[in-house]
Design brief:
heterodimer; A: mainly beta; SH3 type barrels; five-stranded antiparallel sheet; 2 helices; globular; B: about 700 residues; alpha/beta; Rossmann fold; about 5% strand
């Protein structure tokens, strides 16, 4: 599955988005899905480490750290600019 | 990954409970407050052991009421019944009753964190399919309410089909109701199946057809999702021949081309979101004070600077706070030893007790203050959620050496002692990553290296000021950095050669900061102190006695009685087995600038490096050198037969390098064996580190003396 456009990796700090499609071939991406990153879930870019990698996302109050390479596999639709 | 089938347990470790006792498992996500609740329910009377063949700790406690005793088994945290890491495999195997030496559970206490219902319900829903009586404890309800989440427990209970008890483990609110529910868990009917995924239920029903044995739905379901893996072979063998032949066809039909785990996750989390809409009164509020603190420390630069500040504070505390306690232990050991000689006279037996047992064990117990302080900080950082953030912040740096952020925790722990550090590597799911971390960990400057460094630095490095720092402190810092660099290079080398493989995965949960629970912290701290003292009481005790015997025997009848006691001791040392061994290997260490006395001390230190100080103390208690009161004074005054000093600067630098590298610790070797399940890695680590230490010391001495 080719994923173009907005992904979790293109979100800015404080931005929220809903996951729309996932390239789940990689077992590491499947693991992230087991942690709750699935289609239809709203996530917020909370912060990043030095160099913008890894990135911390928050979903339903819990934080998950993702590397850039995995964040790119999640296609998203931004919902609103965070406050 | 250790499979349950490889695990063996001696028969005497199998617990046989009284017939009336129920055994239930405590299951929950990592960081769900599970251990705190377990400690609240069972108190301090816990049995801590290991699951057979692995070092995952098995915590068993008992909940006593007026008429029953219920056994509670606290399982490692897990996110799903599809296991990912070693700890998750253990948890899942125990839940399914296929862990050898652990009987199948009679019921489940599911721990659900009210601040993280999303991931919690994903697991709890899977638990309701196990056909076991189940009770849900809803923890952290106070924290959830503060952040604006109110949970409708009645509605949640109705949707899950199991009783839900809100509790606040820190204050004890709600615990009484939960206790009586657990005591009566056998009278509960197992929950009815929630039709989250009807196609899966139908597929499982199809597989169950024609089987001569009753098949559990949850196991069939895992077989469909995970396939016929090693863990699932038990259920495969129970299938009828037709069902076994159909298995791959049924799976293909169910998942088409999609990865099964991905579809499973999507369908269940979609269900979880519908439940959340019904049971959560308000949407989660992201901006609590914790979120603010978290947010500040997670800005890239303040976060990373904060990490360095935290580490600096920890190190300062370990060294500054421990000193008075260590001095006290040292003084008590001397007083005790002297008292033994006073009471029993100068006999072989009193020498064994004073010089062997008291001095040997004392030289290990002296590290207890440092180890306890370091563990206290590590446990506090872990329980407050900061250690996960440290892993997150350091991930990029660790990745550049082929590891992941998760390796930072074992690495930091190894500064106290490589033994718990290596034990901490079990949180790393990837095997290659884990072994590379295990190989790097013994290079970290552990607290047993510190006294050797302290002695040599105090004796041979002048205490001159360099800027605002002391030169002695700088050299010590340099030795710490040297250890880190060597460890990192080792990990890098291994990931590029024997442990070559894909990049390790990195999916790290970042819990919000929370106040650690005192009881949980103390239980963990006591547990680790016990492990350390057990080591001091067994391995080190044996080593101390052996080293003492090597230095004490054979007795020389010909020692001139006119000699003063120091000189007599030194003469005795020279013709003891240890002294002879030192002379035999002297040619090997001669290129490093060591005389037979240093060589003897180094040999004695191979099982436990801290022993070297005691041996140096004996071998240099002689002649002119003995006039110097302190050991460092004696080392400075030590000369070769030709009158030249033994401890020249290049030799001391070489000796420091040798100690920074060499794996002189039987306990570390034993723990590497246990963690990797093969002798290959400890033997390799020992040989590799010894060669590096030797070559490093050789280069330092030869180049420095040229």
């Amino acid at each position: 599955m080719a994923i173009n456009g907005n992904t979790l990796a293109t979100l800015k700090r404080g931005q929220k988005a809903i996951i729309r499609a996932i390239d789940a071939a990689d077992p590491q991406v499947q693991r992230l899905m087991v942690l709750g990153l699935v289609e239809g879930t709203e996530v917020e870019h909370a912060s990043s480490a030095i160099g913008g990698d890894p990135i911390e996302f928050r979903l339903f109050g819990c934080g998950i750290s993702l590397r850039q390479e995995h964040a790119r596999r999640f296609k998203v639709a931004p919902v609103a600019v965070g406050d | 990954m250790t499979k349950s089938s490889e695990i063996r347990i001696p028969a005497n470790e199998i617990t046989v409970a009284k017939r009336s006792d129920a055994s239930i498992v405590v299951v929950g996500n990592p960081n769900s407050g599970k251990s705190t609740l377990f400690n609240r329910l069972t108190g301090l009377k816990q049995r801590i052991g290991n699951y057979p063949g692995v070092t995952v700790e098995r915590h068993i406690g008992f909940l006593k009421t007026a008429d029953s005793t219920t056994e509670l088994v606290d399982l490692p945290g897990t996110h799903s019944l599809s296991a990912h890491s070693l700890e998750e495999h253990i948890a899942v195997d125990v839940i399914f009753g296929r862990m050898e030496g652990t009987k199948p559970p009679d019921g489940i206490l599911a721990v659900l964190d009210a601040t993280n219902l999303y991931q919690g319900l994903f697991l709890v829903q899977q638990l309701t399919e196990l056909e076991l009586p189940t009770v849900v404890a809803l923890t952290m309800t106070d924290a959830a309410e503060k952040s604006g989440i109110q949970v409708d427990t009645a509605e949640l209970s109705a949707l899950l089909g199991v009783p839900v008890y809100p509790v606040v483990a820190t204050t004890g609110a709600g615990l009484d109701l939960l206790r009586s529910a657990i005591a009566g868990i056998r009278d509960l009917t197992p929950p009815r199946r929630i039709r989250v995924w009807p196609e899966l239920i139908e597929a499982a029903a199809r597989l169950a057809q024609d089987s001569s044995e009753p098949l559990r739905f949850a196991e069939l379901e895992r077989l469909l999702i995970d396939g016929p893996t090693e863990s699932n072979k038990g259920i495969v063998s129970k299938l009828s021949d037709t069902a076994r032949a159909q298995l791959s066809g049924v799976r293909e039909e169910l998942f088409e081309s999609e990865p099964p785990i991905a579809r499973d996750a999507r369908i269940r989390y979609t269900w979880v979101r519908t439940v959340l809409d019904k049971v959560q009164k308000k949407a989660p509020v992201f901006v609590s004070w914790r979120t603010r603190v978290t947010g500040f420390f997670n800005k890239p630069v303040p976060g990373t600077l904060g990490l360095f500040v935290v580490m600096a504070i920890v190190f300062q505390a370990v060294f500054a706070w421990a000193t008075p306690l260590m001095d006290a232990i040292d003084a008590s050991a001397s007083v005790l030893g002297a008292a033994v000689f006073e009471r029993l006279g100068d006999t072989a037996f009193s020498s064994l007790i004073a010089d062997g047992v008291i001095a040997g064990v004392g030289s290990v117990v002296i590290f207890l203050p440092q180890i306890l302080i370091l563990f206290l900080f590590i446990i506090l950082l872990e329980d407050s959620g900061y250690l996960a953030r440290a892993a997150y912040l350091m991930d990029r740096a660790m990745r550049s050496v082929g590891l992941s952020g998760q390796s930072i925790i074992p690495m930091i722990s190894s500064f106290a002692c490589a033994v718990p550090g290596i034990m901490a590597t079990r949180v790393i799911p990837n095997r290659r990553d884990r072994i590379a971390t295990i190989m790097a960990a013994p290079f970290m400057t552990c607290s047993a290296r510190l006294p050797v460094y302290a002695l040599l630095i105090a004796a041979f490095v002048p205490a001159t000021k360099v800027g605002f720092m002391n030169l002695q402190g700088l050299v010590l810092l340099g030795l710490y950095l040297f250890g880190i660099v060597m460890g990192v290079l080792t990990a890098l080398l291994m990931r590029k050669t024997t442990l070559r493989g894909p990049k390790p995965p990195f999916a790290l949960m970042l819990p919000e900061f929370r106040r650690p629970n005192l009881q949980t912290v103390m239980i963990q701290l006591l547990g680790r102190a016990k492990v350390f003292l057990k080591r001091a009481g067994t391995v080190i005790f044996a080593v101390a006695v052996v080293v003492w015997a090597l230095a004490y025997f054979p007795r020389s009848d010909g020692v001139n009685p006119d000699l003063d006691s120091n000189t007599a001791a030194a003469v005795q040392m020279e013709q003891s087995w240890l002294g002879r061994a030192g002379k035999v290997v002297e040619p090997v260490f001669e290129p490093l600038g060591w005389d037979w006395r240093v060589s003897s001390a180094v040999i004695a230190g191979f099982p436990a490096r801290e022993v070297v100080i005691a041996v140096l103390g004996t071998v240099y208690a002689v002649g002119d050198e003995a006039d110097e009161g302190t050991l460092s004074g004696r080392l400075k005054a030590a000369t070769r037969p030709d009158g030249s000093p033994v401890f020249t600067l290049p030799m001391v630098v070489g000796l420091l390098i040798f100690y920074a590298c060499c794996l002189q610790c039987a306990a570390t070797l034993a723990i590497i064996r246990r963690e990797t399940n093969t002798w290959r890695w400890p033997v390799f680590a020992w040989a590799y580190m010894t060669v590096i230490g030797y070559v490093g010391a050789l280069l330092a001495f030869q180049i420095g003396s040229a």
